[in-house]
Amino acid sequence: METLTLCTRRPSSYSSSSPLCFARPLKRYGSSQLKLTKHKYPNSKQRLFVNPTTTKSSLSCSPPRTKEDQSAEKLEQLVSEFRSLTEPVDRVKRLLHYATLLTPFDDSARIPANRVSGCTAQVWLEVKIDEFEKMRFLADSDSEITKGFCSCLIWLLDGASPEEVLNVKTEDLRDLNVGLNGRAQSRSRVNPWHNVLIGMKKKTKDLIIDK
């Protein structure tokens, strides 16, 4: 009887640069015991996984997520991540990590027109619409923590449509507005989440009007 070697654990996440299964002790099943089932993972094409539970072969697939679903899922992931960090020092470390992932900002773009108003730190924001009518954001700050805030928002909205960017409300980010002292920040002029998002939306709206 032909046998196949299978992972016994479904991976927690998938990316195009990581394997679908993680190596660990394997089980063997006869080919007559196998069922193929499709599972869908964020940022990936549908993949075939082997489910050794029935003696019949079948394929099932879910409808593809819309862009709005993907944006909502990214926001949910970001909120969940920061809510799980109960210690202020852990939030600082996470923001500093995200600051290192920010795309380098050209010195020529550090101009008054790109300054984000209302922030205690200096923040620059450059916004463009690409050839596919998607929004592209670049940002920088003289504060590493604020750079971390910018990096999170860019991860959330870079590549989104103008409508998606304009539809995001500051209330949607309320669970992200957790100060480093553990208390919820008010929507004040020193709140980086609030001010950078407002800057993104304003520049997006200006670009749409100018087209």
TrEMBL record:
In alphabetical order, the GO MF annotations are: enzyme activator activity
Q: What range(s) does the Fe-S metabolism associated domain occupy?
A: 80-202
What keyword terms does UniProt attach to this protein? Chloroplast, Plastid
Keyword Plastid in record: yes
Q: Would you tell me the Gene Ontology cellular component terms?
A: chloroplast
The biological process GO terms on file are: iron-sulfur cluster assembly; positive regulation of sulfur metabolic process
> SUPFAM superfamilies, per this entry?
SufE/NifU
Q: Which family does it belong to?
A: Belongs to the SufE family.
Please report the name of this protein according to its UniProt entry. Fe-S metabolism associated domain, SufE-like
Top-level taxonomy? Eukaryota, Viridiplantae, Streptophyta, Embryophyta, Tracheophyta
